[in-house]
Amino acid sequence: MDAQSPIPNVPGVSESHADADRDRTPAPQETGPGAYWLPPAQYALRPRLHPWEIPMLVLIVAITLIGYLVIVWLVVLGQFSEYFLALLAAPLVLLLIRGLTYAQPRVNGVQMTPTQFPEGYRIVVEAAARYGLEYVPDAYVVLGNGMINAFASGHGFRRYVVVYSDLFEVGGRARDPEALEFIIGHEVGHIAAGHTSYWRQLATVVGMNIPLIGAALSRAQEYTADNYGYYTKPRGVPGAMGVLSAGKYMLSAVDFDQFADRATHERGFFTWAVNALASHPVLTWRAAALRDRTRAGAMLFRPKAIVRGVGSGNVVPVPPPPHPAAVTPGTLPNGLEMPPKL
Fold this sequence. Notes:
4-stranded mixed beta sheet; two-stranded antiparallel ribbon; alpha+beta
């Protein structure tokens, strides 16, 4: 395998991240009469795995191993089948898929360097240093043709990020460059969290194809990567959700709070099923999780409470509207006096 280039001494990259941690430290909660208590905004601090990720990973690895053992046992009993051939071929097939996937951007894409897409290169280098990667992942820009996408993967000892070209239009100064930083941080987070490992993918190849179970692990991994994206650039969250929901030209028309609020409003079996069957959390739930940094993203049941973000992930509850009987005539619901009639 080709050796990767170690992380260079880029100004501002190898510096301590104490300031970043301090910026994300939750502010004290209110005290005194009428005070409320909220759990600390732990997901605004250094990235952590979604709590479902490891249990679902263990379950799926166990299912995969049991599947392998059953196939081998059937062969021992003389019941040879094509499943045994698939079992033997799985390591090689996965190796070929990963190799071909890596070769595509190498021969057709533009590699991010200090002179080609330097802003994207800077983000990748800084994220690699921030999350303790030994080497800077390769990063490529490929033709998007209107598609909004990015992904991270690996082959051998190499790890890499691919960003579709349309996302650099989002990252243009006229739009929202911080959204691009969140998205690249999300992809580097997949690498830092170990999601791109060959052995991990081989050990989950059977279980990941089981409906609901495989999708649950995938969603947990996406929430984990979102934690990395948030830590990379918290201010990029609204723009990132805007571009994923409305596209690269209309992202600024999306009201992030209204969009995240709908996670608590949209209900019913079919909305639940769309999320449960999806490899990524539905966008409204994802936005709600990125706004409320006091808890992990919702996996199976929609968020129940609307919150409003304050600072770096601190949240305050939205009080319910007062009962009409509690409103004094001649005042507004918030206690202010009605303006005089002209």
